Here is the input.
Amino acid sequence: MSTPNYSLYLVTDQSMCEARGRSVTEVVSLAVAGGVTCIQIREKDGNAREFLHQVLDVCAIVPDDVTVIVNDRIDVFLAARTLGASVDGVHIGQEDFPASVVRQLIGPAAIMGVSASTPEEITQAESDGADYIGIGVVHSTDTKLDAPSPLGVTGTSKAAHFASIPAVAIGGIKANDMSALRAGGLSGAAVVSAICLAEDPTAAAQELLQEWSRQ
Ligand SMILES: Cc1ncc(COP(=O)(O)OP(=O)(O)O)c(N)n1
Ligand SMILES: Cc1nc(C(=O)O)sc1CCOP(=O)(O)O
Ligand SMILES: [Mg+2]
Here is the structure.
């Protein structure tokens, strides 16, 4: 596993991909061509076996220098690893299994991302062994029904400064937020609809990355 780069972090959504007539794997492939550096497979509806196959399919087409993370499902991560997939870690939130338990289940080398937006959550995530935190939402979003209140770019950057591990922003992020998030101390920006719903996921990823790199 190469050192993770969270700069442009795609979180997948099968129904959005299908709304554009594509599979998750097709969108991942197009987004990787546009420069996505990290991919989280997030599937709230399918069964465990479908989710496992989605993870295996994505791992099979993603280059080694792109990090692959499984949302929520520790069992799916462990099953994919057992089958030899090059899956790198998991992302869990405040209502998922406790991070300290997840760290023991996945071992010391796997990546563990934890959603944490308050100083208390960030301190706890770090002491539980998180490798990075996800902070959100930056802007309101229709993608996550139970999303918390928006922090804005300024609030997100403030929260990121509490962290001594990399912080990834999420929620309603578009290309015009990227440069301010980077300047605000974020290590990356995670997007769902900006790529999964894009007419051209490669061009969308390229634009997001270009804005991230803008001085
Ligand atoms: C990078 C990143 N940050 C935050 C989240 C949200 O995780 P969680 O709070 O567990 O919510 P669900 O995604 O499980 O609905 C994330 N997935 N990725
Ligand atoms: C999966 C997820 N988690 C969030 C959080 O704040 O924890 S917001 C979110 C969805 C982000 O989707 P979009 O880029 O389409 O707004
Ligand atoms: Mg979760």
